[in-house]
Design brief:
The chain is an alpha+beta fold. It folds into two domains: about 5-155, Aminomethyltransferase beta-barrel domains (Alpha-Beta Plaits, 2-Layer Sandwich), CATH 3.30.70.1400; about 195-280, Elongation Factor Tu (Ef-tu), domain 3, CATH 2.40.30. It contains seven helices and 15 strands. The longest helix has 15 residues, at about 70-85. It is globular. The termini are far apart. Mean pLDDT is about 95; it is low at about 275-280.
Length: about 280
């Protein structure tokens, strides 16, 4: 059973009788419909609808666990505390050291199933602490192949909308529950169909250059490389510009490497094509 230790991940525990209502009214994830044994992605947004913090959340007994990057845990806890007001919620840092990831048909049944990877047809589970043994790069290669982005690797916090990173496709963004911070902006984006940036899988004819390299089509930037593993990578791209380049046969490159861009097949998304192009 493949496994990987993610030492840069940390946990926050939320307990108390108001924990569920507190999260339901604050973050993008639909907590009320969250089943036992499932970890869903989610975010706490700015009032302008951009991702201030991202994480995974799952049930633990009568409370909840939030898994996030260690570098943002303390700031996230402060922000959650700021919103708590008089709610009966206790917010505490988890004592576990890192998170262990298992994947494959025999993945650890005692861990929680990752809903984002499940959308991509991959059985992957997560468990607090160091419970297995495996290199972190193997996990990143897996998520690159699957088209699953991570903040700090593929996008910067406060610089991306939930649609940009496919939260609307991975059960991390609800349009049916009540209001939460930034909800009006992302709902408008959803109903008007105005999401112009999406995560794309980048495949190079040779090894890709370093993260941060611009992706160019016809002399114009369409995105920036994020995670890279050999000749595969992820990038958040302008889908209108990529669609135009593909429609006109314009080469796309990252540095000196010619690349192809595809949207994750599981997402059901496609690059837009101009109406006149679609009719020919």
């Amino acid at each position: 059973m493949p496994a990987a230790i993610l030492p840069s991940r940390s946990l926050i525990r939320l307990t108390g009788k108001d924990a569920q209502d507190f999260l339901q009214g604050l973050i993008t994830t639909d907590i009320d419909s969250l089943p036992e044994g499932e970890a869903r992605p989610g975010a706490l947004l700015t009032p302008q609808g951009k991702i201030l913090f991202d994480f995974l959340v799952w049930r633990e007994g009568d409370g909840f666990l939030i898994e996030t990057e260690t570098a943002q845990r303390e700031a996230l806890m402060r922000r959650l505390t700021m919103y708590k007001l008089r709610a009966a919620v206790d917010i505490a840092a988890g004592a576990e050291d890192g998170v262990t990831i298992f994947w494959g048909d025999d993945s650890d049944k005692s861990a929680v199933r990752d809903a984002a990877f499940a959308k991509a047809g991959i059985t992957l589970t997560r468990a607090p602490g160091k419970l297995g043994d495996g290199p972190e790069p193997a996990y990143h290669a897996l998520r690159i192949d699957a088209g699953i982005p991570m903040s700090g690797h593929d996008y910067a916090l406060q610089d991306a909308f939930p649609h940009d990173v496919l939260l609307d496709q991975t059960s991390g963004l609800s349009f049916r529950k009540g209001c939460y911070v930034g909800q009006e902006v992302v709902s408008r984006m959803q109903h008007r169909g105005t999401a112009r940036r999406r995560v794309a899988i980048v495949s190079g004819e040779a090894a890709l250059p370093a993260s941060g390299t611009e992706i160019i089509a016809g002399g114009k930037p369409v995105g920036t490389l994020g995670s890279v593993s050999g000749n595969k990578g992820l990038a958040i791209v302008r889908i209108d510009r990529v669609g135009d380049a593909l429609a006109h046969g314009v080469p796309i490159s990252a540095g000196d490497v010619t690349v192809s861009l595809t949207l994750p097949a599981w997402s059901g998304l496609s690059f837009p094509v101009e109406a006149e192009e679609a009719e020919t």
